[in-house]
Amino acid sequence: MRALIYLILGAILLAVGIWWILSAGFSVMAIVAMLLTATGGAVFVAGIAVALDMFAPTSKKI
């Protein structure tokens, strides 16, 4: 469940960031949009990592 939340949240942030970059153009706000896009990508990759960790056959809970 946690991996799914990370994936959905990351995909939303990534899509909003890309949309904001396209609409901001060459302005100072494009820097903030790029940071949002990077954050969305990082959360999306973290969701993939959590999913792979949860469903790995050799994963052990300590």
Explain what this protein looks like in three dimensions:
By secondary structure, the chain is an all-alpha fold. The protein is 79% helix and 0% strand. It is built from 2 helices and no strands. The protein has helices at 2-24, 29-54. Helix 1 runs antiparallel to helix 2 (29-54). The radius of gyration is 15 Å and the shape is rod-shaped. This is Nitrate/nitrite transporter NarK. The chain crosses the membrane at residues 5-22, 28-52.
Write the layout of secondary structure elements.
Layout: H1 2-24, H2 29-54
Helix pairs in contact: 1-2
What percentage of residues falls in helices of 4 or more residues?
over 70%
Mean pLDDT: 90
Give a short account of the largest sheet: none
Class from helix and strand fractions = mainly alpha
Contiguous uncertain segments of 5+ residues: none
Rg, alpha carbons = 15 Å
Tell me the series of helices and strands, N- to C-terminal.
Answer: HH
Describe the global form: rod-shaped
How many β-strand runs?
A: 0
Cα separation of the termini: 19 Å
SS element count, helices: 2
Query: β content, as a range?
Result: under 5%
Protein name: Nitrate/nitrite transporter NarK
Keywords: Membrane, Transmembrane, Transmembrane helix
Transmembrane segments: 5-22, 28-52
Organism: Corynebacterium guangdongense
